[in-house]
Design a protein that fits this description.
The protein is 28% helix and 28% strand. With 525 residues, the protein is of the alpha+beta class. It has three domains: 11-196, Nucleotidyltransferase, domain 5; 209-388, Nucleotidyltransferase, domain 5; 419-518, no CATH class. InterPro entries: ATPase_NBD.
Length: 525
């Protein structure tokens, strides 16, 4: 149960989970002195009037001029594909993955992601969808609480994969500004915060009653549409003291869309040179929307209906509009994702600072019975048990984002990388590497000899970082004129000409790390 809201200001908090394939919203109404009211948004424009879904497709149709014309739930209307073809609309989906870090490990992902519409950036699409989500949320809340939005402050929580960093958070905040959620000012920037999908999933599990014995760990596998987010945590003392990350969180691009892409490649190879080649997109859609979700047993064939009774060719495995797919073939589509999770969980167990024998499987892809059964069977060989909640599988991230906002559960994290800055290092004539670079040596104003291109570590990889902990290193800047000191800060600095001693402070305790300059100014006794 969330704690009583102690502030004097009324507030509404929206948690937007913009997933690769589906998105959802959970919100909290915070009234001073009362227990927070937490609910999902269950009605979106174009959806059912009652009993609506809590998830909408992360899809946008753009007209030839580049304006969004149909978004989210509206893209599910009957006949929308025909209208889109007649109107020459461009369908944009899976665009979230275009925001991913461009690292060597994600270089090949581009081959499986549909390209962006002409003239559009990933931020443009993210902003258009954020605007749709914001309007949907405010309309829904306004129908139930007419005066709330005009009488209280609005804050936003945006979730993202574990592997996303400051650069991706910057792009998401830029999209929030472009969408009109906030203005481009430092104070308004604070109204948007971020949470990893791993931390949100943990917060949801804790909020729903997850119990970990003191001294043990648990691995959370958030299996989504685009990514598999793997995080491992341990309880610190009793549950009220929170949880600590005991292994670096990881994210892999092997979500459910890659199962569908594997199916599409298979269908293309099988039917490209047949009379059914024009049916391949529809076959793929049928696999994605039905066959993939219902698949359970690789020893049984599956019959996928895609056409009419006139579509008949036994030699191609098609009878009366139904395509026969062997169970082992479908199992092959799942295999890379399954093995990715198994390898990641075993690796987390290996590097975790305490024993972990339990996995909690959440996320929309986690609802697959075949995925669940395979993970249970294979991880049992490593003495690891896999549990799957009966409910809230697809809502773990937005619900957990709100739960983590109301009652933070993470006490400490593990640094995934080494952080530092480029610096000029002191020249040491006794070191061979320094002597080899003698031609690069230069002399500071103070007479000290230095070499350029060094790296000064502020935080080492795998370091345990407390929630409010700062890491500080000392540096100094020399200059022959006052204007040079403007490089430290673009404001007037009161100081003597010469050396300016300053610190670089980096805070890593929250999901979004922060960096600051600090120096002493006008100090006297």
């Amino acid at each position: 149960m969330p704690p009583i809201y102690q502030s004097t200001k009324r507030k509404v908090v929206f948690a937007f989970d913009i997933g690769t394939t589906y998105s959802g919203i959970t919100y909290a109404i915070l009234d001073p002195g009362r227990e927070p009211e937490v609910k999902p948004v269950t009605k979106f424009p174009g959806g059912a009037a009652v009993g609506g879904n809590t998830k909408v497709p992360t899809v946008i149709y753009y007209d030839p001029a580049g304006s969004p014309c149909v978004i989210g739930e509206e893209t599910q209307r009957e006949g929308i594909d025909v209208l889109a073809e007649e109107s020459k609309w461009i369908k944009a989906e899976w665009f979230k993955l275009h925001l991913r870090p461009k690292t060597q490990t994600t270089a090949t992902v581009s081959d499986d992601i549909p390209p962006l519409p002409p003239g559009k950036t990933a931020v443009d699409l993210f902003a258009d969808f954020l605007k749709y989500m914001d309007q949907s949320a405010k309309t829904y809340v306004g129908e139930h609480h007419p005066t709330l939005l005009s009488s209280g402050q609005v804050e936003y929580i945006l979730s993202h994969p574990n592997a996303w960093e400051g650069a991706q958070q910057m792009l998401m905040r830029r999209a929030a500004v472009q969408a009109g959620l906030i203005t481009d000012t430092p104070d308004d920037h604070k109204r948007v915060s971020f949470i990893t999908e791993g931390e949100a999933s943990l917060a949801c599990c804790v909020d729903k009653g997850l119990s970990i014995k003191e001294g043990e760990g648990v691995t959370i596998v958030d299996a989504g549409g685009g990514t598999l987010d793997i995080s491992t945590y341990g309880r610190r003392g009793n549950s009220d003291e929170g949880y600590e990350e005991i292994a670096p969180a990881q994210s892999y691009f092997q979500g459910s869309i890659f199962v569908t892409r594997a199916a599409n490649r298979y269908l293309t190879e099988r039917f490209e040179e047949t009379q059914f080649r024009d049916d391949i997109p529809f076959m793929t859609e049928k696999f994605d929307k039905a066959t993939k979700l219902k698949f359970r047993d690789p020893t049984d064939p599956t019959y996928m209906k895609f056409g009419t009774i006139r579509d008949h060719d036994p030699n191609l495995g098609i009878r009366k509009g139904q395509l026969r797919l062997e169970g082992y073939t479908i199992g092959d589509f799942f295999e890379p994702s399954i093995q990715c999770i198994v390898d990641a969980v075993v690796d987390q167990q290996r590097i975790a600072s305490r024993e972990t024998r339990t996995v909690f499987l959440v996320g929309g892809f986690g609802a697959s019975d075949y995925l669940y059964a395979q993970l249970r069977e294979r991880l049992l060989l490593h003495q690891i048990s896999v549990l799957r909640p009966d409910t809230y599988l697809s809502k773990a991230v937005p619900d957990g984002a709100i739960a983590g906002y109301l009652r933070p559960v993470i006490y400490s994290r593990i640094a995934k990388y080494t952080y530092g800055i480029r610096s000029n290092i002191i020249y040491d004539a006794t070191k061979k590497g320094h002597k080899d670079r003698l031609s690069q040596r230069f002399t500071l104003l103070c007479g000290e000899m230095r070499l350029p291109g060094g790296f000064w570590t502020i935080l080492k990889k795998n370091t345990k970082v407390l929630d409010t902990q700062e890491f500080r290193s000392n540096f100094f800047l020399e200059a022959s004129n006052k204007a040079e000191f403007a490089k430290v800060r673009k404001t007037k600095i009161t100081c003597y000409r010469g050396s300016l001693l300053y610190d670089i402070i980096v805070s890593f305790g929250t999901t979004e790390f922060k960096a600051q300059f600090a120096w002493k100014e006008n100090v006297s006794l």
